[in-house]
Structure to design on (292 residues):
């Protein structure tokens, strides 16, 4: 608007006197070097119009750039969202049965083809054992299922046919022979897992489990076996060396709980998880320091 008004004013002035500007070295006879005030004014007007045009283009360009960046950001965030939702983490979940709010058991299968057992998951021990068909002690009658090594094509004895023995704080004592076989949890198979076949048992008669699945550290193992959780991690069947529980306190529910290997089920809790370091003095057990 300012440029247009200036142009009108200068056009009116053109009808009157015409002023001239001469260069310092201009000859009087050389009129080609004469630059009039009107020429300078027109040059200024053209320059201002170009500046105005560039300014408008910059505004439009910035607007387009921002819209383009926003659309790209939205498409990028959508891609990230889909990548996260489509990526399945390696977590093994196993349903548990609540036995009178005393303990929770879940299915674990051993051998090829698999022979399945109701296992008690124990954080206070590290060994895996199940009863053998060769267990003839009186208390062996309490077991519902027994392992028959002759029916597993993948079972192997340890070279020295090592013995296994363990006692628990509730008075339970079991012993037997060590072996190696495939262990399956909800369809996921751990290969070359050491375990014990129990041929002797002294234990309470009111138990509902066939064996014990230890969740402790290496150093707590009575049979010098690698705990199943560590083999899950070493064989890359789980993403993280984590075990988590969800326990339903109502024994009447068909789903008494779940055990998760490799992570947690975020749908079953609120807020954040607080982690605490295990004390170095008791690296055998899941023991933490409490300050009161």
């Amino acid at each position: 608007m300012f440029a247009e008004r200036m142009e009108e004013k200068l056009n009116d002035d053109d009808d009157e006197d015409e002023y001239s500007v001469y260069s310092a070295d201009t000859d009087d006879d050389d009129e080609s070097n004469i630059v009039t005030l009107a020429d300078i004014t027109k040059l200024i007007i053209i320059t201002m119009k170009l500046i105005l045009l560039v300014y408008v283009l910059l505004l439009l360009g910035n607007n387009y750039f921002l819209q383009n960046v926003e659309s790209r950001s939205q498409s990028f965030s959508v891609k990230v969202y889909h990548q996260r939702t489509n990526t399945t983490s390696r977590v093994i979940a196993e349903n548990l049965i609540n036995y009178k709010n005393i303990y929770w058991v879940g299915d674990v299968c051993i051998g090829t083809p698999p022979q399945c057992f109701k296992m008690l998951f124990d954080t206070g021990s590290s060994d895996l054992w199940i009863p053998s068909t060769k267990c003839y002690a009186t208390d062996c009658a309490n077991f519902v299922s027994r392992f028959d090594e002759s029916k597993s094509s993948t079972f192997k004895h340890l070279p020295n046919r090592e013995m296994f023995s363990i006692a628990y704080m509730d008075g339970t004592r079991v012993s037997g022979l060590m072996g190696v076989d495939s262990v399956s949890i909800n369809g996921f198979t751990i290969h070359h897992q050491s375990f014990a076949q129990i041929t002797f048992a002294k234990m309470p008669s009111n138990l509902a489990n066939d064996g014990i699945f230890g969740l402790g550290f290496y150093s707590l193992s009575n049979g010098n076996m690698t705990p199943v959780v560590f083999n899950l991690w070493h064989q890359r069947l789980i993403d993280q060396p984590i075990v988590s529980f969800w326990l339903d306190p109502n024994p009447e529910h068909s789903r008494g709980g779940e055990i998760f290997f490799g992570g947690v089920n975020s749908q079953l809790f609120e807020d954040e998880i607080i982690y605490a370091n295990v004390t170095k003095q008791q690296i055998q057990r899941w023991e933490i320091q409490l300050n009161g």
Summary: The chain has two domains: 2-24+33-72, 95-282. The longest strand covers residues 188-202. Confidence is low (pLDDT under 50) at residues 1-11, 13-32, 53-88. The chain has three helices and 13 strands.
